[in-house]
Design goal:
single chain; mainly alpha; about 80% helix; about 0% strand
Length: about 190
């Protein structure tokens, strides 16, 4: 694969996909500097490719440049506004900094773009709940639970919301589903 990418770049040095692939290859080989160089170039040459932006931001974050990673994701949202993955990554960075209000617009957009993602639905519903948007959160959880009835995180969130509403029987059933998952979270046992 590396030889094909190099051949493609010999023919056209501005081939963004080849730079993306080389970035992935170098990252897998542990050469972060060359990976960064190729991924950065890929975002300039082929900015509509979400994977280049996401990998570049991940390298920046892992290298201790969290602010630079957020800036990269903000630029990515402008370049690829229809990428649920980029909106979700930007929202996750806001949540890591304990800024749920800042995460909400990107979560809303990620969910709009990719409602078939249990992880996005769970995170979006949880942030809505934390920010006091209970009815909207309930609606997202209900829709997502219909699509993903066995998804542990959604079941646990549903259990929490049912407890808050005073429906302890339904909450217990939801927590049973969550706790029956391969990797239940320890805090879920506290509510069961």
């Amino acid at each position: 694969a590396m030889q094909l990418c190099r051949l493609a770049l010999d023919l056209n040095p501005d081939e963004g996909i080849a730079h993306t692939l080389l970035g992935q290859i170098y990252l897998a080989k542990g050469d972060r500097e060359l990976a960064y160089e190729h991924l950065n170039r890929a975002t300039l040459l082929d900015p509509e490719q979400p994977v280049s932006w996401l990998m570049l931001a991940a390298i920046q974050k892992e290298d201790g440049h969290a602010r630079e990673a957020v800036d990269t994701l903000r630029a990515a949202v402008l370049a690829v506004p229809c990428s649920a993955e980029i909106h979700f990554a930007l929202a996750q960075s806001s949540l890591e900094n304990h800024l749920p209000s800042e995460a909400l617009p990107d979560l809303r957009e990620a969910y709009r773009l990719k409602p078939a993602s249990a992880e996005i639905a769970q995170t979006y519903a949880d942030v809505l709940r934390v920010l006091g948007h209970s009815s909207e959160s309930r609606q997202v959880v209900n829709e997502a639970r219909q699509k993903f009835p066995a998804y542990a995180g959604l079941a646990a969130l549903d259990g929490l919301m049912l407890m808050d509403a005073g429906d302890l029987e339904a909450a217990a059933l939801a927590f049973e589903i969550a706790l029956d998952s391969p990797e239940p979270r320890p805090e879920w046992y506290l509510f069961y």
